[in-house]
Amino acid sequence: MKKSYFRPEIDAMAGYVPGEQPVMENLIKLNTNENPYPPSEKVAQALRGFSAETLRRYPDPMANRLRDAVAARFGAHRDNVIIGNGSDDLLTMIFRAFTSPKLPMAMLYPSYSLYAELAAMQGARVVQLPLEKRTFSLPCDLLERVKNCNLLMLTRPNAPTGTLFPRAAVEKICASFDGIVVIDEAYADFAPDNCMDLALKYANVIVMRTFSKSFSLAGVRLGYAVADETLIAGLMKLKDSYNVDRLAQLVGEAAFADVETLERHCRDVCEGRAFLSGGLKKMGFFVADSAANFLFAAPPDGDGKRCFEELRRRAVIVRYFPGEATGEYVRITVGTAGENRKLLDFLHEIYGG
Ligand SMILES: *Cc1c(COP(=O)(O)O)cnc(C)c1O
């Protein structure tokens, strides 16, 4: 066999496979939880006013104006906030900081599979915490299982299930676990509550958010994390010097200044979620309770792959995750009212009812 120059950990990895980003037009794209509505008009205005000449200069390495905006919204200080090139960038810093061959991490299953890939890059052991079938609730012996871990990833609302673990249970974990708890709140704006306050209350808790979903800005790559200032200062050592470019900083500031648009679009998405969920249940689907902008749903025949393929043939793309705990399901991003209706029509065609 040909010699590999890679570290053995890298050779052993499969690598994270992102959802498909097709170039084909006229399809209904419900596979990567993007927002069906456009970003704030303030973003468009900021871009129109942007001078290309300023690109000569490096951006603010700390993105301080955006840090201040985030801090002001959550009653925090600038030193409690770090900005990332997408929240995936923050995850990279977090895994570099808190995992190693001697420092294992724990994550839920099913959950965001990128966490396991980032752990593999570090040569860190991953403790999988299987969620209960159908309800996707937390295992009752969670604290026992994570004892030797230095990092625990909690996704709330969880992906791909959409479910929301009780806040009280999450707070109890934060208070009892002797390690870092990261609460990935990528979908929190679609949920009835969130855990942002825990990031300011507990010295071991990091809450992360992204602009990709609720702010309709997956294309610019922007995320942020809030935590105790000691944790943020440590993460700053690990980030690329200029990790957030000028355009992203500008767009982020503009979007953050218009919470009304965000809230209106979130309300519309939640209405679409209720409409879709009702329609799916009427057709005999099992639908997990979702607090996010997507539904995790099992068709009447329990064959997620067939559902994915039949929809694809009709130019509708949803997400299918092969595997024992996920293979029965498809994950469907909530679309516009028109897209949601079309999806249900196609499903009627496939399953009758
Ligand atoms: C989408 C998503 C992210 C990544 O967000 P980006 O800011 O686009 O990198 C992180 N965590 C979860 C659970 C997500 O679903």
Secondary structure layout plus pairing:
Blueprint (H helix, E strand, L loop, with lengths): L7 H5 L15 E2 L11 H8 L15 H11 L6 E4 L2 H12 L6 E5 L4 H9 L3 E5 L11 H4 L5 E5 L11 H10 L3 E5 L11 H6 L3 E6 L12 E4 L2 H10 L7 H11 L2 H24 L3 E2 L6 E5 L5 H10 L2 E2 L12 E4 L3 H15 L2
Parallel strand pairs: 1-11, 3-4, 3-5, 5-6, 6-7
Antiparallel strand pairs: 2-8, 7-8, 9-10, 10-12
Bound molecules: pyridoxal-5'-phosphate.
Give a verbal description of the structure.
The chain is an alpha/beta fold and 353 residues long. Helices cover 38% and strands 14% of the residues. The protein is built from 13 helices and twelve strands. It has helices at residues 8-12, 41-48, 64-74, 87-98, 114-122, 142-145, 167-176, 196-201, 229-238, 246-256, 259-282, 304-313, 337-351, and strands at residues 28-29, 81-84, 105-109, 126-130, 151-155, 180-184, 205-210, 223-226, 286-287, 294-298, 316-317, 330-333. The strands form three sheets. The protein has a seven-stranded mixed β-sheet, sandwiched between helices. The protein has a three-stranded antiparallel β-sheet with strand order 9-10-12. The chain has a two-stranded parallel ribbon with strand order 1-11. Helix 8 links the parallel strand 6 and strand 7 (205-210). The radius of gyration is 20 Å and the shape is globular. Bound molecules: pyridoxal-5'-phosphate. Pyridoxal-5'-phosphate is lined by residues 86-88, 112, 155, 159, 184, 186, 210, 212, 218, 223.
